[in-house]
Design brief:
It is built from 4 helices and 2 strands, in the order E-E-H-H-H-H. It is mainly alpha-helical. The N terminus is likely disordered.
Length: 98
């Protein structure tokens, strides 16, 4: 399962969560467009290319950094969400995108 503990540049900021009624970091608040370094209006081909580019850099077998596995999981989840039209629309709604 996807780890909610994200490191480095992919860590989301602590915000108030109405569901739990407290401040905390939430995976749903992570902007997957920023994780893949793509535009909000990116096509499926752009998403796939960005995922492959990031995966080559962050895969734990290639990258010896301690947080490589968590960063790779964030990139993988971003690709899963943005490649699926229903999940992408849900993500856009959470980010208040048109």
């Amino acid at each position: 399962m996807y780890s909610t503990r994200l490191l480095g540049q992919y860590r989301s900021k602590a915000q108030f969560c109405p569901r739990t009624n407290r401040q905390h970091r939430c995976r749903a608040q992570l902007n997957y467009y920023e994780v893949l370094d793509i535009d909000v209006e990116a096509s499926q081909e752009d998403i796939k290319a960005a995922f492959r580019r990031k995966a080559k850099l962050l895969h734990p077998d290639v990258n010896p950094a301690a947080d490589a596995a968590d960063s790779f999981r964030a990139v993988k989840r971003a690709h899963e969400v943005l490649s699926n039209d229903a999940l992408r629309q849900e993500h856009d709604n959470k980010l208040n995108l048109p």
